[in-house]
Amino acid sequence: MIERQFVAQRLKEFRVQEYIEQELGRSGYSHTQIKRTPLGEKVIVYTSRPGLVVGKKGENIQRLTQVLKRRFKMENPQIEIGEIQNPFLDVHYVADRIASTFERFGSKRFKAIGYRTLQNIMDAGAMGAEIVIAGKVPSARAKSWRFKVGYLKKSGDISESKISRETLASNLKSGTIGVKVSIMTPDILLPDRLVIKPAAQVVQEMQQHEAAAEKAAENKPKRARAKPKKDEAESKEEQSGENKPAAKPKRQRKKKSDSTEKKKDEMKEEHGENQKA
User: Fold this and answer.
1) Which of the four pLDDT bands, split at 50, 70 and 90, describes residue 178?
2) pLDDT attached to residue 270
3) Where are the domains of the chain?
């Protein structure tokens, strides 16, 4: 079944992405994109630190290539590095940065980490962001701390399909700390967003629209004049005349020939003589 082939292909791509994330999780890794080409499968790894991903003289790239061939049965995998233009608008990078900070320095200054990260996200141009840190922070009991700023949709289609979300876990000695990051990027078009134009721009657009309409009217071809309608009485007479059947020609009687008349006269004379006799 072709459906099973599609499912198997998607499952294979998910396992490759999961493996690469485990291997490059704390090196500014963002996400992985897999594309099919005539020469083989192209694996693009997006990261904010390309040097750490490539390794010394490309050691990490060579090792990943061998693993993809042997473990995931890829014929000719080509690994490329894609650099993130704006790291603080990428939820994968932000969540990985917070989790790695906890693992390196602990969770004592979690508030400073949360607020500083929010400030960096807003400086990058985001419309709104939210960071949720849950776990044994800072007491022995598990709690959840929420840091938010700006405008962030919480319901509707925009919240489900447009807002970027990422969840990671940071393993410490005191326990596991969960990090959830949500970012509303500036490229999202909101249906309730109003843009007020200046009056001069509105007048200029109206003048341009009127000039375009006049030009289109001049270039439009003129239609031929319609013929005047006939009177109703004349039209009815024509219709009635057309509907009447054509008159049949009268048959002309044939004139009797002279020979037949003479024969009839002779017959009458003979009949009269017989009666006298």
Assistant:
1) very high
2) 67
3) 2-84, 89-184
More confident: 130 or 258: 130
Question: Of 71, 80, 76, whose CA–CA distance to 46 is shortest?
Answer: 80
Question: Please, which residues have CB within 8 angstroms of residue 25's CB and are 6 or more apart in sequence?
Answer: 96
* pLDDT tens digits along 1-51: 688 888 888 888 888 888 888 887 666 777 888 888 888 888 888 887 778
Q: Which amino acid is at 215?
A: K
> What is the residue-wise DSSP string for the chain?
-HHHHHHHHHHHHHHHHHHHHHHTTTTTEEEEEEEEETTEEEEEEEES-HHHHH-GGGHHHHHHHHHHHHHS--SS-EEEEEE-S-GGG-HHHHHHHHHHHHHHH-STTHHHHHHHHHHHHHHTT-SEEEEEEEES-SSSS-EEEEEEEE----SSHHHHHTSEEEEEEEE-SS-EEEEEEEEE-TTPPPTT---PPPHHHHHHHHHHHHHHHHHHHHHSPPPPPPPPPPPHHHHHHHHHHHHSPPPPPPPPPPPPPHHHHHHHHHHHHHHHHHHH-
CATH superfamily of 89-184: Ribosomal protein S3, C-terminal domain (3.30.1140.32)
| pLDDT of 256 | 47
Does residue 118 surpass a pLDDT of 90? yes
Chain mean position to CA 275: 120
User: For 52-56, 148-152, 195-199, 271-275, which range has the lowest pLDDT when averaged over its residues?
Assistant: 271-275
CATH 3.40.190.10, applies to 2-84: no
* Residue reference for tokens 């990051």: 181
pLDDT, position 12:
85
Q: How far is CA 44 from the centre of its chain?
A: 24
